């Protein structure tokens, strides 16, 4: 490959690192890719570290040793998180989102790439030090935010199905009770999906009483894995006593007044600093 100028290498380095966050690239990978000496790449990384910190994009981490290298850890500042969550609340507070029964329409939000990418970055920042091996969600609406979270953490996504599929091979199925309606539902997961002893992060789009999250936790017991955390995009203020206790919610839906056509939603306490 033709040798690149420093500014060209730094741009290319940033592109490689951000396209695969939390993945450790060896220095040899970059020396071969850019036809440059290791000392040159090391100097480029130092410059890139300063740039990433200055722009509040996260941080570049270098790992020493035989298995070492460099990786990009995306992060959002508290001000960036606050601004994003407040903007999202404004979107969701629109009166035309009110659905009969005291619900709000949010499917479009969950499929808008820029929004779900930011949600994934926020969740990943809270759980990046938990040694997560898998992100787990249940089909279907939670899949986009779970996928972006898994992408930032650089781990596989596992999707628990409502019904077993023949293409999944042997599966584990359990019955669980929804926390709000007390209805009995079934969820299933392929026996090949998760390795025993792994650490998993449960991600879901919405929590009312926590029945689905508890169902996934119970499912994880069947696989002998550790649930290291639960992240929820929106949780309702009531009931206050959820079926799961240790979870992070980005937004809290305090209520929907159909008569006054008002949605009361705000960033959850402790999330936006």
Characterise this structure:
There is one protein chain. With 273 residues, this protein is an alpha/beta fold. It folds into two domains: 6-74, Arc Repressor Mutant, subunit A (Orthogonal Bundle), CATH 1.10.10.10; 78-267, 3-Layer(aba) Sandwich (Rossmann fold), CATH 3.40.50.2020. It contains eight helices and twelve strands. The protein has helices at 6-19, 27-34, 38-54, 78-92, 107-110, 113-127, 143-153, 211-222, and strands at 58-63, 69-74, 98-99, 103-104, 134-138, 157-160, 171-177, 184-190, 199-207, 226-236, 248-257, 262-267. A six-stranded mixed β-sheet has the order 6-5-9-10-11-12, sandwiched between helices. It has a two-stranded antiparallel sheet with strand order 1-2. Helix 1 (6-19) packs across helix 3 (38-54) and helix 6 packs across helix 7. The longest helix is centred in the first third of the chain and has 17 residues, at 38-54. The radius of gyration is 21 Å and the shape is globular.
The strand count comes to: 12
Structural class: alpha/beta
Spatial strand arrangement across the major sheet:
6-5-9-10-11-12
CATH fold descriptor of the largest domain: Rossmann fold
Give the uncertain stretches in residue-range form.
none
State the CATH class of the largest domain. Alpha Beta
Second-tier CATH architecture of the largest domain = 3-Layer(aba) Sandwich
What is the helix fraction of residues, given as a range?
25-40%
| Pattern of helices and strands | HHHEEHEEHHEHEEEEHEEE
Shape: globular
Q: List the domain count as a whole number.
A: 2
Largest sheet at a glance?
6 strands, mixed
User: Which percent range describes the beta-strand content?
Assistant: 25-35%
**What is the alpha-carbon Rg in Å?**
21 Å
């Amino acid at each position: 490959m033709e040798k690149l100028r420093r500014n060209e290498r730094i741009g290319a380095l940033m592109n490689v690192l951000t396209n695969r966050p939390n993945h450790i690239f060896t220095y040899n990978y970059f020396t071969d890719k850019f036809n440059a000496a290791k000392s040159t790449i090391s100097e480029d990384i130092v410059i890139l570290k300063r740039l990433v910190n200055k722009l509040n994009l996260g941080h570049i981490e270098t790992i020493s040793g035989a298995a070492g290298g460099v990786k990009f850890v995306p992060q959002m500042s508290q001000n960036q998180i606050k601004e994003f969550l407040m903007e999202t609340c404004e979107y969701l507070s629109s009166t035309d989102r009110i659905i009969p029964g005291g619900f709000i329409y949010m499917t479009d939000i969950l499929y808008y790439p820029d929004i779900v990418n930011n949600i994934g970055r926020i969740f990943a920042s809270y759980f990046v030090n938990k040694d997560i091996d898998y992100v787990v969600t249940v089909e279907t609406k939670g899949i986009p935010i779970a996928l972006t979270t898994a992408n930032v953490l650089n781990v596989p996504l596992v999707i628990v199905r409502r019904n077993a599929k023949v293409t999944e091979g042997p599966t584990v199925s359990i019955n669980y009770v929804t926390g709000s309606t007390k209805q009995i539902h079934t969820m299933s997961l392929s026996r090949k999906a998760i390795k025993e002893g792994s650490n998993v992060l449960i991600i879901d789009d919405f929590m009312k009483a926590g029945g689905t999250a508890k169902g996934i936790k119970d499912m994880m017991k069947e696989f002998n894995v550790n649930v290291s955390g639960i992240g929820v995009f929106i949780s309702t203020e009531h009931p206050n006593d959820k079926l799961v206790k240790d979870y992070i919610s980005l937004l809290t839906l305090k209520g929907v007044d159909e008569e006054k056509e008002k949605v009361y939603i705000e960033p959850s306490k402790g999330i936006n600093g």
